[in-house]
Amino acid sequence: MAMARRHVTLLSCSLLLLLLLSVFASHSDAGSVGVNYGRIADNLPSAYKVAALIKSQGLERVKVFDSDPAVLRALSGSGIKVTVDVPNELLSSAAKTQMFATNWVQRNVVAYHPNTQIEAIAVGNEVFVDTHNTTKYLIAAMKNIHTALVKFNLASDIKVSSPIALSALQNSYPSSAGSFRPELVEPVFKPMLDFLRQTGSYLMVNAYPYFAYESNADVISLDYALFRQNPGVVDAGSNLRYFSLFDAQIDAVFAAMSALKYDDIEMVVSETGWPSKGDENEVGASLENAAAYNGNLVRRILTGGGTPLRPKSNLTVYLFALFNEDRKNGPTSERNYGLFFPNEKKVYDIPFTVEGLKNYHDHQSPVSGNQHETSPVTSPDTGRGDVSKTLTGNTWCVANGEAGKEKLQAALDFACGEGGADCHQIQPGSTCYDPNTLEAHASFAFNSYYQKKARGAGTCYFGGAAYVVSQPPKYGKCELPMT
Length: 483
What we know:
Structural class: alpha/beta
Number of helices: 15
Number of strands: 17
Strand content: 5-15%
Largest sheet: 9 strands, parallel
Radius of gyration: 23 Å
Shape: globular
């Protein structure tokens, strides 16, 4: 497209039209767009309505976070390719006995395929940040699930992988220096990548440029994060120029695989998205930015081309998520990643197909431009325990023991997972593992999230599972940091 624009004066109108049409028509040489269908909500339409909605939008693929029979039945005969998930809590059972894995595949895959076109099984989700210490079961569980597929003659049709978060990287900047966390290389990544190579599968990666932008809005250009026109960023290690934060993140993972001599493994972006709404301290969470990110991403994927490091690797990406999910824990943004409201109306209007892209334009407001967005500091909301760091001295976020085990556990899972809290110190053998109680571990995770978010308004709430204190909390020998 850039070349066509550059030499437009040399082309007749008819030839230019042909060139434009050829770009959009080369779908076979481009990537693919799917969607994550999460259901942590109490107001969603029926699975049959959802299947019809996905098909009506031209979306080719859907990824679910379980293997719910109602969903799989609804997708039967739709032609939509499906990725199902073995939940983290089942990994130990799937790893310990082949019979469990075989029975799971028989009940959740064989019973529906091929009428429901299951093309992949995600074994767990971001297990490296799972507070239940499921990492040690991952490889065995993946192998047992694959063995079951072989038993039912489905191994050539259905791939097995496991989505990783970018927190699995030790280094991600510059992209050429990408590397996996050292403690995960030998026990997990090498055997996982060996498995993916042997079975012809691919690495699933959850990539969210929004999180990087939100935490570094003072140094990362919004245009760079949203695939808008920008001068680019040169990687000093490879001398490659990047024009989007998304490409830079993906290439950091490719570089990490290359460092371990796994250049031949492909990648699927199993989750990516941008929230359309957030709390006051959640920089960049807005309707315009969400529409720009997802719309420009769809254009980036469907018009073909790989990344600067892997220019021939067309990507399949799964947008997160299909719906706004009103029962999700965490800040406001967590409930506002949806492309659709529960009434099936679009949150914002973007295309999902090559045909739709012909009339797509990124509607940029005059004031957004290349500015670094900032959020105002507000006064404390004493009803929620939120404290602005500019109005107080040192503060910490701790678990509310009266919130109940279920609410604490859900909030802890969020903080250590999607929330990006540093939970390494509460793993077995680490400094703050003892006392091994839910309240102590949750306090460490909540405080890590709170400090990471600069103690902003709304970051120590977790649905009422946490509150702010002004005296240094201590659990056994573990002291909660204040930075």
